[in-house]
Amino acid sequence: MASFGISLRMSQSQTIVLGIETSCDETAASVVVRDGAGHGRILSNVVRSQVEEHAAYGGVVPEIAARAHVELLDGIIVRALADAGLGFADLDAVAATAGPGLIGGVMVGLMTAKAIAMVHGLPVIAVNHLEGHALTARLTDGVAFPYLLLLVSGGHSQFLAVEGVGTYRRLGTTIDDALGEAFDKTAKLLGLPNPGGPNVERAALAGDATRFAFPRPMLGKGRLDFSFSGLKTAVRNAAEAIAPLRDVDVADLAASFQAAVTDIIAQKSATALADFARDTGQQAPTLVVAGGVAANKAIRSALTATTEAFGADLVVPPIALCTDNGAMIAWAGLERLATGDISGQGDMDMPARARWPLDASASPKLGSGRLGTKA
Amino acid sequence: MLILAIDTALDACSAALFDSEANRVVAVETEVIGKGHAERLMAMISAVMTKASVDFNAIDRIGVTVGPGSFTGIRVGLATARGLALAAGKPVVGVSTLEAIAREASTDKPFMVALDARRGELYTQLYDGNHSAISDPQLLTIAEATTALTAALKPQVFGSGAPLLAEAQPSATIQVLGLTAYPDIENVARITAVTAAQSEPPKPLYLRAPDAKPQTRGVVERRGD
Predict the structure, then answer these.
(1) Residue A116: which of B76, B87, B224 has the nearest Cβ?
(2) How does pLDDT run across B138-169, given as a tens digit for each residue?
(3) Residue B150 — φ and ψ, nearest 5°?
């Protein structure tokens, strides 16, 4: 979509939202503007990762995360406004993640948003974190509805049909660990540092992916559901059988693990695309990938091949916008404002929610991962 | 000076507007709710502002309890106060729950404020007869607190943790001054009025470390080459 030729009226109808994200281990704030034609532009995007705070614990500790958020967030907001060259008076609304996520952190972000909104008489928009991920491709690439979303992060692994703002159909999800969590746990057992994803990927570069024949759980069944827990156990068993591990063993284990999950993602994506194309009647559907695992190059190239074979488009937003950030929350708030769908918003009593499935009609899946099956 | 004081650190959820020159509470909302502070606080702040017919420009300073208390409650209050302060461009002052509660003890002799911290522990602080703190706030076991308390000539204790100490030491002549479990918001406002505003926003006073241990288990042995 071309953005030239914007009339004065349109430029006057621009809307500016501050987005706040505190649902896991990133403290983030961003200012995003949406013009009258529906194009978004990120004016600032400040993300403070808490990787170091959690490094010694082999994963995100909810209480440590919540403590960091409350001390960091106001300073992050100051920077986001300064980077955008704006003040509170320039804002049209404040959006904050209200769930799903680690409740202590979510509360910090939501209370801060309510406080700012109260002082300046602005609407506060409670954003579903998953909706932030789901709509990012519309901010970065202007993707039109409907599209297929693969959300793969430390807390989530799911396929969603994104049919409109607020209209999401879950096609499949994990029944145990999230994919990012499987990377983190594999890194941990191999003695690789946090964050697990990039370190497993780095180790895998030098490895032989064919040395260990790891299982591809759920490939034949459950169609679009995932299970990564058994794969993690298989990696552990293989590692313990040959311990103590040499560097080459670690590389081969990492490469074989990554090859297994890449196969799973690629094959399930092909099935999901076929289902989605059938349901929507689209000849060339779009597959959007979101979540931190989208940074993995092996998975990206497998998805490129899958979508090319299907004749589908693949959209992967820039990695800084695939991992948790405030811009996606601001954008989701802007999309909600544009549709006028902020019912129940502006209500200062709205709660933070640890669980909040995007597709309210989807039944919960069994099992729970490190962060819980949140959706 | 017009002060907006808020407290969500313990069982109460409170907001008040206090005029320090007139030495009076202009408007107050307070409710003992135990939990769910996050869903109630904003409506209370809004109610006191409406009742007093003021907006945030009229407020000179914000005061908030920083703990010790419920970790979540502390963060609800602090995130709100820091957010309001940032958005309104007003200074914010942190107030200790122990200090606010100490103001309610009616005695002119030294005493200990002790709040039930659960798990057999207490949030404590020692005060002299003028209600000035003479120790740092501390997390103590019941045994440690009993030792600290009975070292005093005439041991007096005030707060929700007092019965725990009295039960632990039935033979000692521990005098329970009262069982107050949360601050009176008016005292939070009064302390805010006399505390110098810092350039840095206030931080939580948890006294207890997060429940987390560094994890080394589950790592497959590596060859040291």
Answers:
(1) B87
(2) 999 999 999 988 877 678 999 999 999 999 87
(3) -75, -10
